[in-house]
Amino acid sequence: METIPARRGKAAYVRQGQSIRIVNTHGSQVVDTWAFTAGMLTEFMSMEHTRATLTRMIPRPGDGLYTNRRRKILTMTEDTSRGDHDTLMAACDSERYILLGVKEYHDNCTDNLFAAMQALGLTPPECPSPLNLFMHIPWTATGTLSFDPPTSKPGDSVTLRAELDCIVAMSACPQDILPINGTAGKPTEAHYEVVS
Questions:
Q1: Which of 42, 69, 74, 116 sits most deeply, having the most CB atoms within 10 A of its CB?
Q2: Where are the alpha helices (DSSP H) in 42-184?
Q3: CA–CA distance, 87 with 52 (Å, rounded to integer)
Q4: How far apart are CA 154 and CA 138, in angstroms?
Q5: What's the DSSP call for residue 125?
Q6: For residue 123, what pLDDT is reported?
Q7: What angle do CA 12, 149, 134 make, to 5 degrees?
């Protein structure tokens, strides 16, 4: 089991047919998750294309996750959590924290993505909108959104099977201003493993 350090990112190669299991170790940690095709980083998992294909907001076990070329890159095969994940919110970045009133540099998922990919010698062409695992963003019939604490429990996990050779990048989200990583506002580490 590999560690995604608190407030940091990690990336791993996942071959077609392998799976990656992402574990919410302490139960209150959002894990922003991206996938890029191994041969062409300009093709990547796209939340916009996935929502259009699934015709729902949140993927469930058995659902595919689709690229910006409308190819299935991952399939969610297991989810031991309540299933509260987010496909709407962009990854946090320095500008987001400025809007939240932060004056100095703040760790963020966008920088974590680039650092995780660069650790593999890769540079993504952009920061796509991630699959925010364990992030609880309820919405109302009128379209109002809220940032709520996670509903996941310690040890809850999501397993994603690779349908294409890909690189999966993950960020243990550093958000400590809004309660998305729990009301204590203390981001923690998470874990992952690649399994055949």
A1: 74
A2: 47-54, 94-99, 109-118
A3: 12
A4: 21
A5: S
A6: 96
A7: 25
Residue 144: strand, helix, or coil: coil
pLDDT in tens, 168-196: 999 999 988 888 898 888 899 999 999 98
DSSP helix/strand/coil, 49: helix
Helix, strand or coil, per DSSP, at residue 23: strand
Taking the CA of residue 89 as centre, how many other CA atoms within 13 Å lie in the half-sphere pointing to its CB?
27
How far is Cα 109 from Cα 112, in angstroms, rounded to an integer? 5
What predicted TM-score, i.e. pTM, was given to this entire model?
Answer: 0.95
Nearest to 168 by CA among 129, 139, 194: 194
Mean pLDDT for 127-145 is: 94
Q: How far apart are CA 65 and CA 179, in angstroms?
A: 27
Q: Indicate the burial class of 122 (C-beta count within 10 angstroms; 0-12, 13-18, 19 or more).
A: middle
The SS3 call for residue 122 is coil
CA atoms within 13 A on the CB side of 196: 0
Residue 183: predicted pLDDT: 85
Q: Which residues contact 128 (CB under 8 A, 6 or more apart)?
A: 34, 44, 45, 46, 47, 68
Q: Which residue has the tokens 């999966």?
A: 168
- 11 bridge partner residues: 169
